[in-house]
Amino acid sequence: MSLVETAEIEYGETVSLHQRILSDIREKILSGAWAPGHRIPFEHELTAQYDCSRMTVNKALSQLAKAGLIERRRRSGSFVRQPQSQAAVLEIHDIRIEVEALGLPYRYGRLSRLKRRSSAEDRTRLGLAATGPVLSLECLHFAGERPFALEQRLINLSAVAEAGEEEFLDIAPGPWLIGRVPWSEAEHRIRAVAADDPVADALDIDPGAPCLVVERRTWSAEHPVTHVRFVYPAESHTLVARFTPSRG
């Protein structure tokens, strides 16, 4: 790689221009500076702006397209992609919809909110390589008068800075994030646990009662966005998967 193909960023690290272009465009999209439908500068314009090869620009745009952030149109250029339905890729439901499907009124409450520097445990949960700002939230979702699910969430503020200004008093963090951050990859982990005292108190169940835990991590263009842990009383939640045989 030639010297012109590298650049210094504010933290003193040397990164490739491919990564710099990727980061600059991604930041404009996720911040809302470039709205859905906005035309990305043409390749020759980016080549001149960053003083790099067209191959470097093409590599960055291809990666953004693969992550679902932009749409590349032949002869027209590249555009910020319109938000797509997430459920077609992976079922990420709004808990409100789950509750209302049961014919019960939904209610949401925020239990705690703390903005802090990430701990070692936070970095493990989010998959972060370095310390940075995170937002820790604990919320409770109700079905009728009964607690339906306890939500424990971490948001990577380096990826979603505006979450640090949101109080999450009137809207749950899940639908708020879905409406603002186009995720490109998600991971689910599902397990059974016995309720400890804090969980039992929040869900109004006996300590030691069986619970279903669904943990999820999401990424946007390879950047960790959030880790969330939903705890359900065992009798209130069922996971269903429908699939077909592999064709080998």
Characterize the structure shown.
The longest helix is centred in the N-terminal third of the chain and has 14 residues, at 17-30. The chain has two domains: 3-80, Arc Repressor Mutant, subunit A (Orthogonal Bundle), CATH 1.10.10; 91-236, Chorismate lyase-like (Chorismate lyase), CATH 3.40.1410.10. It contains seven helices and eleven strands. The strands form three sheets. Strands 6-7-8-11-10-9 form a six-stranded antiparallel beta sheet. It has helices at residues 17-30, 43-50, 54-66, 95-101, 120-126, 173-178, 197-203; strands spanning 6-8, 14-16, 39-40, 70-73, 77-80, 106-117, 133-143, 146-156, 185-194, 210-220, 223-233. It is an alpha+beta fold and 248 residues long. It is 25% helix and 33% strand.
Secondary structure: elements and pairs:
Layout: E1 6-8, E2 14-16, H1 17-30, E3 39-40, H2 43-50, H3 54-66, E4 70-73, E5 77-80, H4 95-101, E6 106-117, H5 120-126, E7 133-143, E8 146-156, H6 173-178, E9 185-194, H7 197-203, E10 210-220, E11 223-233
Antiparallel strand pairs: 1-2, 3-5, 4-5, 6-7, 7-8, 8-11, 9-10, 10-11
Helix pairs in contact: 1-3, 2-3
List keywords for this structure.
248 residues, alpha+beta, Arc Repressor Mutant, subunit A, Chorismate lyase, 2 domains, six-stranded antiparallel β-sheet, three-stranded antiparallel β-sheet, 7 helices, 25% helix, 33% strand, elongated, disordered N terminus
Major sheet strand order: 6-7-8-11-10-9
- Supply Rg: 21 Å
Strand segment count: 11
Task: Determine the structural class based on helices, strands and strand pairing.
Answer: alpha+beta
Low-pLDDT regions:
1-14, 84-90
CATH fold description of the largest domain: Chorismate lyase
How many domains, as an integer? 2
Q: What is the residue-mean pLDDT, rounded to a whole number?
A: 83
Provide a count of the helices: 7
CATH architecture of the largest domain: 3-Layer(aba) Sandwich
- Gross morphology is elongated
CATH H level of the largest domain: which superfamily? Chorismate lyase-like
Largest sheet: 6 strands, antiparallel
Oligomer: single chain
Q: Given this structure, which CATH class of the largest domain is correct?
A: Alpha Beta
Tell me the distance between the termini: 41 Å
Q: Element order, helices and strands?
A: EEHEHHEEHEHEEHEHEE
Overall helicity: 25-40%
Strand content: 25-35%
